[in-house]
Amino acid sequence: xxxxxxxxxxxxxxxxxxxxxxxxxxxxxxxxxxxxxxxxxxxxxxxxxxxxxxxxxxxxxxxxxxxxxxxxxxxxxxxxxxxxxxxxxxxxxxxxxxxxxxxxxxxxxxxxxxxxxxxxxxxxxxxxxxxxxxxxxxxxxxxxxxxxxxxxxxxxxxxxxxxxxxxxxxxxxxxxxxxxxxxxxxxxxxxxxxxxxxxxxxxxxxxxxxxxxxxxxxxxxxxxxxxxxxxxxxxxxxxxxxxxxxxxxxxxxxxxxxxxxxxxxxxxxxxxxxxxxxxxxxxxxxxxxxxxxxxxxxxxxxxxxxxxxxxxxxxxxxxxxxxxxxxxxxxxxxxxxxxxxxxxxxxxxxxxxxxxxxxxxxxxxxxxxxxxxxxxxxxxxxxxxxxxxxxxxxxxxxxxxxxxxxxxxxxxxxxxxxxxxxxxxxxxxxxxxxxxxxxxxxxxxxxxxxxxxxxxxxxxxxxxxxxxxxxxxxxxxxxxxxxxxxx
Length: 487
What we know:
This protein is of the alpha+beta class. Among the domains are: 7-186, Beta-Lactamase, CATH 3.30.450; 334-485, Histidine kinase-like ATPase, C-terminal domain (Heat Shock Protein 90, 2-Layer Sandwich), CATH 3.30.565.10. It is built from 9 helices and 12 strands. The strands form 3 sheets. Strands 2-1-5-4-3 form a 5-stranded antiparallel sheet. Strands 7-9-10-12-11 form a 5-stranded mixed sheet, with helices on one face. Strand 3 (146-153) and strand 4 form a beta hairpin.
């Protein structure tokens, strides 16, 4: 289980985030479009009004020249200013918020300026930007007849229209559009702030859920990893609904621990029964030897040919029986305190004699071929190694071979003893479990012989391995010549 939030939930968070971003973007576009359209409408209406003023003022100027008797452009400067201002004021009374006048291209002067709807008297001077805008519009009108210009001053805008007059003057009209770039003012800002806040809160809620799930899942994942190593540990408390999952897992772990304890108790009882069966299995071999020896002794006593060798052999088997029982009771921790350097050839011969006695009724060929006769010394517990070899030889006999070969050699500081039979071999399914305790394919077997044998070999610093096929099975027992060579 990974500590990350599941991919499906990450996709959901990504979709919600994208949707929130899209909402913000769409709202911004809509607001911007509304602002621009409002701005364009107001600017267009202002320019239209300024053009109408210019047209009407031009007509009034021409009528004044036609019917006034004296031409306006022939009047003295002060009289011309008064006449033009009166003419402008007359026209502008019908237009709210528009300022107008005349422009003299020769001197670049503005004359007849009037703003009748403005309360301030006298009129405040035009801003330098406004004067430059009027001159630019008048210069353009002198060439094309009419002109219109717009000037943005922060949130405000100024629109100017100009018309060239036949008398050499240009007529201009100006309208100021305050806050044209933010027509809805504070209300728009409030709506935008509310929209952004709602999106931020929604996104923040989703992100907080994601972090909460991520932290909770990480805690559960760490707890599960600890449970993998130690099933007595428990998951820490997790806040929220994920805490119920942690509680359920802890309850399941406690239940499993109780079940495992019960299984271990049952396994211990079963192991005791199998150990008892193993003892019976291991002692059966020396008991058979004792029986055969005593039967032989009985026959020789009847014929008057008894010797002490038969009695000594029976006593030796009883001693071996006692050692086997002691070692089986200590299965899993073989005692190797009686180790000493000794020749393994006599041990191999005694094991062969025991196995040959058991298989006396079988037409079986026994071959003992030590390749290094006289150089098979190793630091071992003799009776334990003899027990291992007897187990191997009796297993070989039970494979119903026609020939059993025992080899012994010395190589690289180790003595290697092999037991090979030409029987049917070990099945592929059984091979991985050959050395498992209590695993057996024999009807009356207990599965302890080979398990104990390998345990003894490894306690000496050696090993017991095998190879099996259709042509038979070979067991290989390796033992170090000196304790320093054990590894």
